[in-house]
From TrEMBL:
<dbReference type="InterPro" id="IPR030679">
    <property type="entry name" value="ABC_ATPase_HisP-typ"/>
</dbReference>
<dbReference type="GO" id="GO:0015424">
    <property type="term" value="F:ABC-type amino acid transporter activity"/>
</dbReference>
<dbReference type="InterPro" id="IPR017871">
    <property type="entry name" value="ABC_transporter-like_CS"/>
</dbReference>
<dbReference type="InterPro" id="IPR027417">
    <property type="entry name" value="P-loop_NTPase"/>
</dbReference>
<dbReference type="GO" id="GO:0016887">
    <property type="term" value="F:ATP hydrolysis activity"/>
</dbReference>
<dbReference type="GO" id="GO:0005524">
    <property type="term" value="F:ATP binding"/>
</dbReference>
<dbReference type="Pfam" id="PF00005">
    <property type="entry name" value="ABC_tran"/>
</dbReference>
<keyword id="KW-0813">Transport</keyword>
<keyword id="KW-0547">Nucleotide-binding</keyword>
<dbReference type="InterPro" id="IPR003439">
    <property type="entry name" value="ABC_transporter-like_ATP-bd"/>
</dbReference>
<dbReference type="GO" id="GO:0005886">
    <property type="term" value="C:plasma membrane"/>
</dbReference>
<dbReference type="InterPro" id="IPR003593">
    <property type="entry name" value="AAA+_ATPase"/>
</dbReference>
<protein>
    <submittedName>
        <fullName>Glutamine transport ATP-binding protein GlnQ</fullName>
    </submittedName>
</protein>
<keyword id="KW-0029">Amino-acid transport</keyword>
<keyword id="KW-1003">Cell membrane</keyword>
<keyword id="KW-0472">Membrane</keyword>
<feature type="domain" description="ABC transporter">
    <location>
        <begin position="6"/>
        <end position="240"/>
    </location>
</feature>
Length: 244
């Protein structure tokens, strides 16, 4: 058995007197697509942020391919270089072209040469339907295109894990589909993905496993057919009835 790509073990996080994560255990295997669902404030973003070491856990461990990344001696930048992340608000640099946005981290963090980064960037943009945007500035792109560029940037250096946090929440409804299509495409390529989303139909269709968080507790997880079709826990059923 190879180690999970990412594994949270008894992860706890508290802000002030608010227990936001109350002992979460969650593992994602290589090539798996795991979707986190749960009400706003249930701790989805915080869990993703602990995995990227943006937030430090108060207790528990997070293993990245078997290595404890919550060990204080671990180089956080080196860990972050192994994980691709896309958030709700695409943070492309407005003064850089799409190609430069996509290749910046590869060049700065991964020390890939400018020519090699540009070659990979163009290749990936083309493969993912954005080839004609390489020379454009972000303000010439739709929100959906910007978010797709942010995803390309996140995967350019083949991260072990891709964390996606509500990547369609800030988009106009008609732009959501093209971003989710790209996630589908990445799943087809075998990318290991842990994503938080409000898009239940997408979760149902694309997730290998759905994880329901409530008040910082992992209440239930299972294949989408179980979670959406026959939830084992009343809180899951109640949440799904509410979000429709
Ligand atoms: P979700 O992504 O499921 O909506 P979050 O992880 O963003 O949930 O937030 C969970 C809870 O933690 C919320 O009550 C939020 O207000 C709180 N929280 C998140 N980050 C911080 C922070 N940096 N400081 C204080 N409270 C925070
Ligand atoms: Mg969130």
């Amino acid at each position: 058995m190879t180690a999970p790509v990412i594994e949270a073990l008894g992860v706890r996080k508290r802000f002030g007197d608010h227990d936001v994560l109350r002992g979460v255990d969650l593992a994602v295997a290589a090539h798996e697509v795991v979707v986190l669902i749960g009400a706003s404030g249930s701790g989805k973003s915080t869990l993703l942020r602990t995995m990227n070491l943006i937030e430090r856990v108060d207790d528990g461990q997070i293993l990245l391919s078997g290595t404890d990344i919550t060990d204080p001696r671990v180089d956080a930048d080196a860990v972050r270089a192994r994980i691709g992340v896309v958030f709700q608000h695409f943070n492309l640099f407005p003064h850089l072209t799409v190609l430069d946005n996509v290749t910046l981290a590869a060049r700065r963090v991964h020390r890939v040469s400018k020519a090699e980064a540009a070659r990979r960037g163009r290749e990936l943009l083309t493969a993912l339907g954005l080839g004609d945007k390489a020379g454009s500035y972000p303000d010439r792109l739709s929100g959906g295109q910007q978010q797709r560029v942010a995803i390309v940037r996140a995967i350019l250096t083949d991260p072990e894990l891709l964390l996606l946090d509500e990547i369609t929440s800030a988009l106009d409804p008609q732009l959501v589909g093209e971003v989710l299509d790209l996630v589908r495409e990445l799943k087809g390529r075998g990318t290991t993905i842990l994503m938080a989303t409000h898009e239940m139909s997408f979760a149902r269709e694309v997730a290998d496993r759905v994880v329901f968080l409530k008040d910082g507790v992992l209440v239930e997880q299972g294949p989408p057919e179980q979670i959406f079709g026959a939830p084992q826990h009343p809180a899951t059923a109640e949440f799904l009835a509410r979000v429709g």
